[in-house]
Amino acid sequence: MTKKYLISFYEILFTHMKNNLFRKKSIEQLLNEEKGRSNGLRKILSVRDLTFMGIAAVVGAGIFSTIGSAAYNGGPGISFLFIITAVTCGFSALCYAEFASRIPVSGSAYTYSYVAFGEIIAWIIGWALILEYAIGNIVVAISWSGYFNNLLVHVFNIHLPSWMLIDPLTAKNAFIESTSALASGAELTAKQIKNYEFAIQAYNTAPMIGDVKIFFNLPAFIIVALITWLAYIGIKESKKSANFMVIFKVAVIIFVIVAGAFFVDVNNWTPFLPNGFEGVLKGVSSVFYAYIGFDAISTMSEECKNPQRDMPRGMIYSLLICTGLYILIALTLTGIEHYSNFLNVNDPLAFVFEDRAPWIEKIVSISAVVATASVLLVFQIGQPRIWMSMSRDGLLPKQFQKIHPKYQTPSFATIVTGVIVGIGALFIESDLVTDLTSIGTLFAFILVSGGVLFLPPKIKEPGKFKLPYINGKFIVPILLAGFIYLFRTRIELAITEFSFSNHQEILFLVFLILAIVITVLTIIRNYSLIPIMGVLTCSYLMIEIPIVSWQWFLIWMALGLLIYFLYGYRNSKLNLENRI
């Protein structure tokens, strides 16, 4: 009898938890909440502003730094990778556009997941977006510091103390590596010697408190503080600043492409795929990192004049423009310098002109400072608005939804974002991998693409975007068959030489199983091609990210779930409404 009651108790508990964990908000409910809000955000953004914001977020640290490592692995063929990644992002961008046209409120993928999947998935994606915005901005701030210091030294001949330009862990590791390398007597390049001397000088000249040497990245902290202030005082001021920075950096990139054309040696494009297509795919994380951010403009729906028309256009326009620039830059760089020379080059645009035209290198340095600052601005605008949306739903404390009476910005959330990113940029290791940021972004793209399949049918309305329906019943199976044929050798090795220690191949097999399941469902349910391709392509890019990033991602997700069950689950607005 007791056993029977226990089973009934667990069944009731499971049903209760399931219904509450996956409780959803309807589109009508979100729109009514938006209309009834008296202290909303200022609606001033046009399609041009959104396009500029998208370019501001995309053209940044990726094109000025990570493209170098991708070029080393893939050679001139990375231009293909930019096209592949753009198509992948394009599928997701169209799905974002569909959601943005239906749900013109702040929150981006978090809000969309609340409608499509329910609360627990919405929380998970909101937590994952912190990886994209907050941690991503720490990386960008540290990168900005490097460009800024380079600008001070080479243009203004100003030398800041070395210990003000580096975090404690990087300083210690660099000192150990430098002294060891110099003592070994190995043959070193001039650049390596310069970097090692910088590390030793930073360590030896650092002030001390007791027995502890003091290191911090002051320029990174200062730029975060300035950008946070700009995001705090208003979207109008942020918009003007972003527009100016975009015009400047796009003009410089076009200039670099045109000027670089005179130094191109077409022999450097042979072989075009020196390491095969596998070499090209090694640059997935680096190239994808160059694309993250176009989704940030979806957080600004509430500040858009006509979000249902302009948000989709802004996303798609910015993606197309950035893809064109990236392909031309990739071909220019690998045409000027042989791909093998990009090993450990963190400033490829400046590197190719260093000996050929030093004056262009200085222009690139200035543009890099502007470009990375614009990325910081868009991400510092995006993160608070996601927290604001989560707070409105009761998943975070009420302070996060506080709107400044004068500036009409989420003031408290903006300050918290600035503090987190600022302290992180001040002390966190500068070698923080971009993979962790990419994995959070791809996860968001997958859920947004899949979420479109769960939306109710919509009739096309004049002036509003509607995702075109293309039946994937026949196309998806053909594409899957083509994928299996192209990767038949890898599939065979993964199966015949299966090992639990080979994590990357396990991820590949998991993707293959997922792809087969999704293909079968597409055949049975006539799913639309675009969202299915968004899910599959982003899933594939995820499995190419190193396993160590997956481990940290899962730890981050576990921490997020702990916070949700301790606070969000009980304080959820939907939970409180159900109690009444």
Task: Please name the defining characteristics of this protein.
single chain; 580 residues; mainly alpha; Amino acid/polyamine transporter I; two-stranded antiparallel sheet
Helix content: over 70%
Alpha-carbon distance between the termini?
A: 34 Å
Helix and strand succession?
HHHHHHHHHEEHHHHHHHHHHHHHHH
Q: Which architecture of the domain at 35-153 and 226-449 would the CATH scheme give at its second level? A: Up-down Bundle
Low-confidence stretches: none
The CATH class of the domain at 35-153 and 226-449 is Mainly Alpha
Q: Which whole number gives the mean pLDDT?
A: 82
With helices defined by DSSP (H or I, 4 residues minimum), what is the helix count? 24
Radius of gyration, rounded? 25 Å
Q: Which structural class do the helices and strands define?
A: mainly alpha
Task: Write down the oligomeric state.
Answer: single chain
CATH topology of the domain at 35-153 and 226-449: Amino acid/polyamine transporter I
Largest sheet: 2 strands, antiparallel
Strand tally: 2
Instruction: Write the CATH homologous superfamily of the domain at 35-153 and 226-449.
Output: Amino acid/polyamine transporter I
Strands of the biggest beta sheet: in what spatial order? 1-2
Q: What share of the residues does DSSP label as strand, in percent?
A: under 5%
Judging from the principal axes of the Cα atoms, what is the shape? Answer: globular
Pfam families: AA_permease_2, AA_permease_C
Domain Cationic amino acid transporter C-terminal: 529-572
Keywords: Membrane, Transmembrane, Transmembrane helix, Transport
InterPro entries: AA/rel_permease1, CAT_C
